[in-house]
Write a structure and sequence with these properties.
- This protein has eight helices and seven strands, in the order αβαβαβαββααβαβα.
- Helices cover 40% and strands 14% of the residues.
- The radius of gyration is 18 Å and the shape is globular.
- The longest helix has 20 residues, at 56-75.
- The protein has helices at 11-21, 37-48, 56-75, 92-103, 127-135, 145-149, 165-169, 189-192, and strands at residues 28-30, 53-55, 84-88, 108-113, 116-117, 154-157, 176-179.
Length: 193
Amino acid sequence: AVPIALDCTDVDDIIETVVRLAPSFGGVNLEDISAPRCFEIERRLQERLDIPVFHDDQHGTAVVTLAALRNAARLSGREIGQLRAVISGAGAAGVAIAKMLVEAGIGDVAVADRKGVVSADRADLTPVKREVAGFTNKAGLTGSLEDALAGADVFIGVSGGTVPEKAVASMAKGAFVFAMANPNPEVHPDVAH
């Protein structure tokens, strides 16, 4: 593995640079590229290269979240299909986690951004969030993140900010809290407990 820092932020510049470097590598692990640029960069690189292209902020986070959730469900005697999750953050990590949880058979998952639950009735959605609205939120939740947490089995935080203690307390009995923003998680461990 060789870390290569690029002194550019333009989508086309990043893609062309990686394409030119790719013959020296067996795979590409993109890191710290924000949404929505990360989705286009990854897609276009996968189309142009014949080696694996992985975006750590998306897929790395989603893989470890699913593994932790499967383990938590198993240890608590539940199936992933019985759980309703709420994700705080509709960026790279939140979108990838939602996709992976749906593919893994989660009961339901709602994604919230700064403006509330991502749902098809919102007129302010980006194309990526509109896609997310199409495969999440089977319950048809609307309103704020705090509203969505009422009765939820799982909170997944990949956004920063703080979730009020009252909202955490409104979650289902035995709920799981994966507050992953760093350096300050959305829910302090004492509050989660």
